[in-house]
C-alpha cells in the first residue's frame, strides 16, 4: 500500500517511515502541510498518517482538504505527541479513523495500520485468489487466466494487472502506479506506464466483450472500469 506521512519532527517522521517500509508499504514523507495538500491534488495514496499540529495548517484543516479531494474511503491516522482527550475526541469528530501517540511502538503501530487497511479495503487484504468476471488471479502463483485459459504475463505486467483489478473504478495516479509496480517514486516524465498499459489491454483483452475498460484519466493516470455490476468474487483458498 502507498502511504503519505505528514510529520514536522524529522526523527519521528523517519521512524514512522521505517516501520511502514518494514511492513511492506511504500511511503511519501512530508514535513509541510501545504506541500502535502498540493501533492494529493495530483496524486493518489491508500492511507494518510498525519501530524495533529502543523506550522501552516492544522491537522483538522489538512484532513478536511483530504476528504474534499479523496472522499471518505482513504483511512486517516493521526500520530501526535498531543494525547489530550480534547484533541483525540476532536480528531475523531472531524473524520479521523485512528489516533496514536508519539513515539510510536512499531509492532502496535503496524497492527493498527493493518487493521485500518482491512476495514477500508476488505477485498484487497490477505486474498489468495481473485475472481473478477472472466478473470482469475492466483496471488501466490502470480498467474492469470481469462475464461479458463492461461494468460502469459511478465512480472511487471502481472503487478500492473493485479493493481488495477484490486482497485476497480478507482483513479490511480501515474506516480501511484509507478511506485506500486516498479517500486520507486516517479520523478521524471516517462512513457513506460503508457506502453505497459497498452500492452496489458491486448494481453488481457480488456474490452467490452469481457466487461472491462482500462481508460486514461486526463492529467492523472488510469482507471479500470467494470461495465457490469457484481462481477467481483474472492476466495481465500488456493487454486
TrEMBL record:
The modification 4-aspartylphosphate is found at residue 51. Signal peptide: none annotated. The keyword Transferase does not apply. InterPro entries: CheY-like_superfamily (IPR011006), OmpR/PhoB-type_DNA-bd (IPR001867), Sig_transdc_resp-reg_C-effctor (IPR016032), Sig_transdc_resp-reg_receiver (IPR001789), WalR-like (IPR039420), WH-like_DNA-bd_sf (IPR036388). CDD domains: trans_reg_C. Keywords: DNA-binding, Phosphoprotein, Two-component regulatory system. Residues 2-117 form the Response regulatory domain. Residues 127-226 form the OmpR/PhoB-type domain. This is DNA-binding response regulator. The lineage of its organism: Bacteria, Pseudomonadati, Pseudomonadota, Betaproteobacteria, Burkholderiales.
Amino acid at each position: 500500500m502507498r502511504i503519505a506521512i505528514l510529520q514536522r519532527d524529522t526523527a519521528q517522521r523517519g521512524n514512522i517511515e521505517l516501520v511502514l517500509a518494514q511492513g511492506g508499504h511504500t511511503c511519501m514523507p512530508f514535513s509541510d502541510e501545504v506541500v502535502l495538500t498540493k501533492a494529493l491534488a495530483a496524486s493518489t495514496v491508500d492511507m494518510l498518517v498525519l501530524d495533529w499540529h502543523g506550522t501552516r495548517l492544522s491537522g483538522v484543516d489538512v484532513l478536511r482538504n483530504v476528504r474534499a479531494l479523496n472522499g471518505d474511503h482513504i483511512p486517516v491516522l493521526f500520530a501526535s505527541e498531543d494525547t489530550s482527550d480534547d484533541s483525540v475526541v476532536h480528531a475523531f469528530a472531524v473524520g479521523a479513523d485512528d489516533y496514536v501517540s508519539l513515539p510510536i511502538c512499531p509492532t502496535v503501530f503496524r497492527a493498527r495500520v493493518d487493521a485500518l487497511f482491512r476495514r477500508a479495503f476488505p477485498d484487497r487484504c490477505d486474498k489468495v485468489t481473485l475472481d473478477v468476471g472472466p478473470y482469475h488471479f492466483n496471488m501466490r502463483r502470480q498467474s492469470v487466466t481469462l475464461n479458463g485459459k492461461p494468460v502469459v504475463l511478465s512480472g511487471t505486467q502481472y503487478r500492473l494487472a493485479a493493481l488495477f483489478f484490486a482497485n476497480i473504478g478507482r483513479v490511480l495516479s501515474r506516480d501511484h502506479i509507478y511506485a506500486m509496480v516498479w517500486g520507486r517514486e516517479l520523478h521524471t516524465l516517462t512513457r513506460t506506464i503508457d506502453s505497459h498499459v497498452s500492452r496489458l489491454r491486448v494481453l488481457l483483452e480488456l474490452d467490452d466483450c469481457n466487461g472491462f475498460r482500462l481508460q486514461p484519466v486526463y492529467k492523472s493516470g488510469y482507471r479500470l472500469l467494470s461495465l457490469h455490476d457484481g462481477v467481483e468474487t474472492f476466495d481465500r483458498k488456493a487454486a
